[in-house]
Amino acid sequence: MTDDTATEPKPDTVDLAAAFEDSGVKDVLRELDETMIGLAPVKQRIKETAALLLVDKARRQMGLATDTPTLHMSFTGNPGTGKTTVALKMADLLHRLGYVRKGHLVTVTRDDLVGQYIGHTAPKTKEVLKKAMGGVLFIDEAYYLYRPENERDYGQEAIEILLQVMENNRDDLVVILAGYADRMDRFFESNPGFRSRIAHHIEFPDYTDDELLQISEIMLSEQNYSFDEKARQAMAEYVTARRGQPHFANARSIRNALDRARLRQANRLFNTASGPVDAQALSTITEDDLRASRVFRGGLDVDRRPRADAAE
Known about the structure:
alpha/beta; two-stranded parallel sheet; 7 strands; 9% strand; single chain; globular
């Protein structure tokens, strides 16, 4: 963040409420509340961070602070809890407050940073950092960068470059590391350089069953679908049953379930419709479309590719 106040007369007072209104941060926070179900502790931390930055900006205007605060973050939680979406909102918030120039989000994993042979990692990592400058770099499952069991692994090279840039370019780049809480703890223990550069740790709780049901209805409505009354009850039962099975990924698993329900609905309409169908029929998910899932029989519909949300 560039300090343009050095040659300007310093104010005697600052109206924080007016600064809040003028910054547009209120719009970001309202959008966060309106578009994301649950996540109360996460939303509270975002609001607290916004307040901290507004006060910091006021202090800079009055000559009480000169250094850019450390804004690198850690998002921990299970898959499907909204970490990437919140990172996007955070990038917007930081841009509105003037802490990043562009406010864009670059999302990467280990494969985007670490090369397969000598001399490959540095240019890959630097190219990603170049794209992210002026915005936020979101590194998902960041702990995979560190693989001490493999002496020929090049992840450590990427880590060293990241640490250097996080320290030297913290006025032009914010890095968010994300992943499971326990694995991130071990990652920080093995890489104390990261822990010392992370100022904000935000934990993302799992959604409740009621929240996941609300999320499923929102996901459907965004595509002009809806449940009928019995289907809504079936979806509530599905959420409870699915949560107790392996590889549950919160909202991500719900989205997968709805995709499969839409597939079943389409096949049902093709196989049973004897004549023209109206918009309501094309837009309604029924109980049968959901209860055909193996989850209701205690089974898993497993994709051959191992991933956190492979089960339906």
